[in-house]
Amino acid sequence: MEPSGRVLKVLCAIVELFIRSGGPVASREVAKFSGLGLSPATIRNIMAELEEAGYLDRPHTSAGTVPSDRTLRLYVDNVPSRRKLSPNFQHHLAARINEMRRELVEDFAWVARLTAEVTNEAGVAVRPFGLGRFLEAVSLVALDGGRVLGLVVTADGSVEKRLLNMEHAVTRDRLQEIANYLTTEFHGLNIDEITHTVRDSGGGDPAPPRDELERQAFEIIADLLPAEGGLVEVQVAGTDNLLQTPEFTEIERVRQLFATLEDDQRIVREIRHALASCSTRVIIGRESALTASGELGMVTTLFFKDGKRAGALGVVGSRRMDYARIVPVVEFIGDSLTRMLQEPGAMNG
Predict the structure, then answer these.
(1) Does 66 or 207 have the greater pLDDT score?
(2) Are 299 and 249 spatial neighbours (Cβ–Cβ below 8 Å)?
(3) Angle formed by the axes of helices 251-261 and 264-274, to 10°?
(4) What is the C-alpha separation between 292 and 312, in angstroms, rounded?
(5) What is the three-class DSSP state of 302?
(6) What is the 3-state secondary structure (H, E, C) of the chain?
(7) 39-53, 54-68, 103-117 — which one is most confidently predicted on average?
(8) Which residues make Cβ contacts (< 8 Å) with residue 100, sequence separation at least 6?
């Protein structure tokens, strides 16, 4: 049975003190902070009951208590009303977005940087988000020394760039012809399926090229495409924000933190799982493999293009992060990206 009445108020006071300090909370602090007019002895009895029920943990026998993941989840989902962003802060945040923004085709890292800056946590941004990635266009640019810059643009606007070293010189006109052929031949097809086809992942002999143009085009696209499942851009910024907090003073905790934030595939997998049936999600501690190892918390939200999931952004930090403050900030940035992607020319480079 979930806490209610004054017991719930005591629990909320413990959570809020824990968010502020990051350390164990003592009954005397709760008695003073809660405003309930209860004595420290009465608070201590209530805390003992909450600890027995699994809502509080005691790191050390003689220390105070800290909220369990279960308590933080209860607090996030049911207790505090989500703080509304003040008009002044919304104006400031909108101005920072306009100041930092780039065409999303060219630069996506600013989204993670901005999120880290305004939340003081580690910012994360991921695109594309959908399960399918579909080719929009191929571009080939001749450079000096027989090199070619190849670009694959997908329908959600992400770009994969590769530098190709051509065995034989190819004229600019021929490169344009090859790029036009590839765009026409593969437009709208799934990237992984194209990769599978041109690299003959099935192990059989590929069909012989119909002509020299197709032969050259298939050689180039085979080198240009990423490995299957690889065309997902993950940006992380603001890790140093977390290193300023008490939780990350121990070397092992720092190691776990960096291991988590450097594993792009794990980040994508966990965020996709978290947002499978909702547009915003808070994950706390052991609720996810991503956050469990470092006792972390995560807030993540989607942004959209033409009503479809285009990407996700959010923050990763200590599990005691101020969720009531951070969730509306992250959602504001996500909503702003969605509006940007509806602008004429957005995502088209």
Answers:
(1) 66
(2) no
(3) 70
(4) 21
(5) strand
(6) CCCCHHHHHHHHHHHHHHHHHCCCECHHHHHHHHCCCCCHHHHHHHHHHHHHCCCEECCCCCCCEEECHHHHHHHHHHCCCCCCCCHHHHHHHHHHHHHHCCCCCCCCHHHHHHHHHHHCCEEEEEECCCCCCEEEEEEEEECHHHEEEEEEEECCCCEEEEEEECCCCCCHHHHHHHHHHHHHHHCCCEHHHHHHHHCCCCCCCCCCCCCHHHHHHHHHHHHHCCCCCCCCEEEEECHHHHCCCHHHCCHHHHHHHHHHHCCHHHHHHHHHHHCCCCCEEEEEHHHCHHHHCCCEEEEEEEEEECCEEEEEEEEEEECCCCHHHHHHHHHHHHHHHHHHHCCCCCCCC
(7) 39-53
(8) 110, 113, 114
DSSP state letter for 206: P
- What CA–CA distance (Å, rounded) separates 102 from 109? 10
CA-to-CA distance for 230 and 17, rounded, in angstroms? 43
Contact 2, 38 (CB under 8 A): no
What does the pLDDT read at residue 94?
A: 94
pLDDT bin (cut points 50, 70, 90) of residue 245 is confident
Q: Using 50, 70 and 90 to split pLDDT, how confident is the model at 86?
A: very high
Give the chain's mean pLDDT: 86
Spell out a b/e string for 213-231, using b for 16 or more CB atoms within 10 Å of the CB, else e: ebebbbbbbebbbeeeeeb
CB 180 within 8 A of CB 200: no
Tokens encoding 303: 């942004």
What are the φ and ψ backbone dihedral angles of 148, each rounded to 5 degrees?
-135, 130
Task: Give every CB contact of residue 239 below 8 A, 6+ residues apart in sequence.
Answer: 122, 257, 258, 261
Report pLDDT digits (tens) over 126-136. 987 665 567 88
**Helices 27-34 and 40-52 sit at what angle, rounded to 10 degrees?**
110
126 — phi, psi (to 5°)? -135, 135
Q: CA–CA distance from 298 to each of 50, 82, 145 (Å)? A: 25, 16, 46
